[in-house]
Amino acid sequence: MPRLRVALAQSNPIVGDLVGNAQLIVDAVRAAREQGADLVATGEMALTGYPIEDLAQRPSFLATATRAVHALAERLAAEGLGETVVIVGHPDGPHEPRLLGTSNAPTAIAQNCASVLHRGRVVARYAKHHLPNYSVFDEYRIFIPGDELLVLRLRGVDVAVIVCEDLWRDGGPVGRVLEADAGLLVVINASPFERDKDEVRLPLVTRRATETDTIVAYVNIVGGQDDLVFDGDSVVVDGHGTILARAPQFVEHLLVVDVDAAEHTDTELPPNVRRWELDSGSAAAGASEGPQGLRPIAAPAPADVAELPDDREQLWNALVTGTRDYVRKNGFRSVTLGLSGGIDSAVCAAIAADAIGAENVYGVSMPSRYSSDHSRSDADELAENLGVQYSVEPIADLVHPVETQLALTGVAAENLQARIRAIILMGLSNMHGHLVLTTGNKTELAVGYSTIYGDSVGGFAPIKDVPKLLVWDLARWRNEAAIARGETPPIPRGSIEKPPSAELRPDQTDQDTLPPYEVLDAILDAYVTRALGHDDVVALGFDRETVDFVTGLVDRSEWKRRQGAIGPKISGMAFGRDRRLPITYRPTE
Amino acid sequence: MPRLRVALAQSNPIVGDLVGNAQLIVDAVRAAREQGADLVATGEMALTGYPIEDLAQRPSFLATATRAVHALAERLAAEGLGETVVIVGHPDGPHEPRLLGTSNAPTAIAQNCASVLHRGRVVARYAKHHLPNYSVFDEYRIFIPGDELLVLRLRGVDVAVIVCEDLWRDGGPVGRVLEADAGLLVVINASPFERDKDEVRLPLVTRRATETDTIVAYVNIVGGQDDLVFDGDSVVVDGHGTILARAPQFVEHLLVVDVDAAEHTDTELPPNVRRWELDSGSAAAGASEGPQGLRPIAAPAPADVAELPDDREQLWNALVTGTRDYVRKNGFRSVTLGLSGGIDSAVCAAIAADAIGAENVYGVSMPSRYSSDHSRSDADELAENLGVQYSVEPIADLVHPVETQLALTGVAAENLQARIRAIILMGLSNMHGHLVLTTGNKTELAVGYSTIYGDSVGGFAPIKDVPKLLVWDLARWRNEAAIARGETPPIPRGSIEKPPSAELRPDQTDQDTLPPYEVLDAILDAYVTRALGHDDVVALGFDRETVDFVTGLVDRSEWKRRQGAIGPKISGMAFGRDRRLPITYRPTE
After folding, report:
1. pLDDT for B141-153, tens place per residue?
2. Which of B83, B113, B139, B164 is the catalytic position?
3. If DSSP codes are grouped into helix, strand and coil, which group holds residue A236?
4. What angle do CA A523, A527, A532 make, to 5 degrees?
5. How far is residue B175's CA from residue B171's CA, in Å, rounded to a whole number?
6. For A564, which residue in chain B has the nearest alpha carbon?
7. Cβ distance B290 to B135 under 8 Å?
């Protein structure tokens, strides 16, 4: 049984940055070659980043990307890395538009490809068959599906190559991989993190491996891109379902593993399958050459098999990664946020400190006449514990002139306070170049419990997909993690234990307006995340009046949500891109 | 040759308002019956409104909509309207999900249908074959395509029914309509207005009619829905390409016309075509019955053949319709906006006054220490000319305390003025329930020439898809239209003629920062609307440095655009829903 040394390059590309992304790939191939790898595979679209969205409809962008693939092949050869077979993900085009109708609207002109680079050339190319167009995915909009299968014959092994969704579909190309009798199936992916996704994704990879009795090498990108976070978690599973190697989550990693793959048999190929013979001369430095000019395989490198941390740690890492990459990839070096003494801003500050270093986080306490003493002291304590930059800007003298001139009362006066705070944060942002973080959580976003252009301002919202109860959970987890490391738990006990309040009028608490968070989060989970109808939610045992109230708030808050900042998606149904709803809408369910 | 009296119900539905939308249909059927119509057709999704977006993924919403179709059939019969054949557009479902993969993401469970109601029952149903998924359309995301054709045999005529995109696709079901030898093709549509769309849509309808030698009855919805505006413009064209009837744009209308359609021949039906025999007893009140229990056709009613107004008037009407319906359908009765004396706010105020009446428009002049005298006097004159509500709120005393406390200078101090104005408008909105209008135009939105959370605040942006040069054109047109009606031209000459300025520092003009608008709008048209690459724009003859500057601004402004209010779409490429781009993005074209 031939042995192949496979390297999976779990890289963190930036969308559009073809030069930087190509450098990441060259670095990975060099490191892989130093470890004697025969084959290197990158994630889906690793050359351009993912998702490229409607950039795929720009002919000039596609032409640039296509040139970059050829340039990458040439560069690898020029740098002495041409013998290693490299499978790289990229868009290909422009092709003729898929739709041949009379409409002159922009249509798909690109394919989502895996290209095989060898000895300075692009020797073969696979185009993704199944184009996901649900949730956050818009691929049917921008890509033309492929219909051919690709098999590489490499050192006696038939290696099939597919892209992401192709693996998920029953009846997809995996069945034809089996017919083609491939020894190794390489799947390149851009598969976003979601809570509990490891309960779906790894079982799928395992099932496909055992179904086809083929080794499956699954490589994913890593890092934050707008509201998506890719967790990596690249893995190699053999035909018995055994995990041979697994990369850690949320970090760039080169996963190298030796696989003993079935040698090809000269079966006739099923229709639409192309086979490319590769004469691989891949060699570890100094290895002597064996038959066919190939090096004898050295003893297997000990492969990494990373263990997944528990749910809350995974979530924390996803939020930290999403925040860090949004800041970094958009050219910021520091962030500012309001510290109210409450739980949401405390958790956001801790995420930011973990993401970019406490010294780059500028917390601002902005007490009003209604702020309690403990709010102020909890904010002080948080800043002290985290070691973030900290200042205090009282708002009373700024609110008063506006309130008086416009004679604002009631909700208008309450909102004014939140908007003055927004002006302070945006002023500091404009003066010092900080990115403003929005501290709202998913629950308040769902029901619109925030002030538009007030506490909702900011470029990035670290916890916009975290329901309120989970915010508390994460705060407790972060404190426990600190204790376990012998550090001071950062989140003040007061912020965790006191009843939540917007403090926009005397003695206000969230529960003056909203049902208890245990009820609210459960109703939102049913109505929003699981998309149950109003009556079905009532049938779960909730009070009808409460359900009416909550679903009414949700239905009326769509515009506020659309105006909100983006933030890391961690669940199957975040707000924003994976939920498209009308704003103008009269519900009658 | 049998004669059919066809009525096209060009209605203005509200998304989700099944009760209200059904009432519009019942009213139309009653009016049609009073005029002796045999057949009434509504627009696409007239029962639910269009687009329903991800509401189509809620099983409860679909179940409610499906019940509503049956209830509508029963109600029509109960109200004595059951003999009229009614074709109504609606979503049908929930069906089994289209995707049978392992992924548990939400997938399409609905079809986009035209149902035939007769004598209290839903007698037949057609499901749209071609699901547009480009530009503003997301139908592949939410619908399952149909594959059967429907032909109704009505009073001796074979009537084929298709939905919107089915007409546009070469090789679509229209070819099979021809094979089925239908005498009349009914197409129900939700086709948004775009500038110059009549140069594409009517020729298409005409071409399909002549290609198939069939009368084509094309019915469209009308009205604003978020950033879409449907123009109606329903039309009936015969097999020679002659327009038999045409409804006016932007208003609800019942278009009634007699058509002499070819009698069916008993050709064998092509595969996947179902034919339903309808025994129509449709009759005008008091008409005597003829053979087969049918009324003899009365003399043809004189059909309307509306003429399209010129381009600028169409645009103005689209903007007014979009604004009126957003205000009305979201339950507002009044709007507020800042009046700077500049051209953008003047045009927005005039649109708003035409949309909801001057008495419901609250203009606010918010002069700063940098505001020129003529800005103030132009704003006064505009308010006077339009007859809108008007107040003056100087901002100096509100800006000063913030500027001093935070020591803001430079751009931060400039932005502060715009943000204080936003606080004033939002305060008035919260106090009095006005919707805030954002006055930014497409050009400034494209390059980010605005203050986020400042002049960009507001729920609706009437001119967000109108480039700056076109804003001036529309202002001149509106003044000319007033003069033609013997009214005072509303837009002050000063607002049209003075150099545009943000007036955030002394003697500032837009052209301190931006290229001349003639150049800027032309580059934006090439780079954004026509999606040309950077080098292709230079090749058109623009200065390379200017192109670098402008495309750099566009690439960096995506987040600001996403944060902006929605507004009526009038071109092939507006910002917002029909352009999906990454925010985090490093261009390398």
Report:
1. 999 999 999 999 9
2. B164
3. strand
4. 125
5. 6
6. B563
7. no
DSSP state of A502: -
Alpha-carbon Rg for chain B in angstroms: 27
Minimal C-alpha gap between B170 and chain A (Å): 5
pTM: 0.95
Q: Between chain A and chain B, how many beta carbons pairs sit less than 8 Å apart?
A: 293
Strand-pair partners of B33 = none
Chain B positions in Cβ-Cβ contact with residue A410 (cut-off 8 Å): 430-431
Question: A418: which residues sit within 8 A by CB, 6+ positions away?
Answer: A450, A451, A454, A455, A502, A504
What band does B289 get if pLDDT is binned at 50, 70 and 90?
Answer: very low
Chain A: residue whose CA lies nearest to B457: A453
Active-site option among B113, B128, B381, B503 = B128
Q: Rounded to an integer, what distance in angstroms lies between the CA atom of residue B431 and that of residue B445? A: 28
Taking alpha carbons only, the member of A122, A113, A248, A305 closest to residue A190 is A113
Q: Would an 8 Å CB–CB cutoff place A424 in contact with chain B?
A: yes
Q: Which residues in chain B are contacts of A572 at CB distance < 8 A?
A: 104-105
pLDDT of residue A99: 56
Shortest alpha-carbon distance between residue A573 and chain B (Å): 9
Give me the residue label for tokens 């509306």: B306
Q: In the predicted model, is pLDDT for residue B4 greater than 50?
A: yes
**Is it the case that residue B294 has pLDDT exceeding 70?**
no
Low-confidence ranges of chain A (pLDDT < 50): 100-102, 282-297
Interface residue B589 vs chain A (CB under 8 A): yes
DSSP three-state, residue A178 = helix
User: What distance in Å separates the CA atoms of residue B160 and residue B153, rounded to the nearest whole number?
Assistant: 9
Q: Tell me the pLDDT tens digit for each residue of A307-335.
A: 999 999 999 999 999 999 999 999 999 99
Percent of chain B, pLDDT > 90?
75
Owner of token pair 């207005």: B193
Q: Rounded to whole angstroms, how far apart are CA atoms B310 and A304?
A: 69
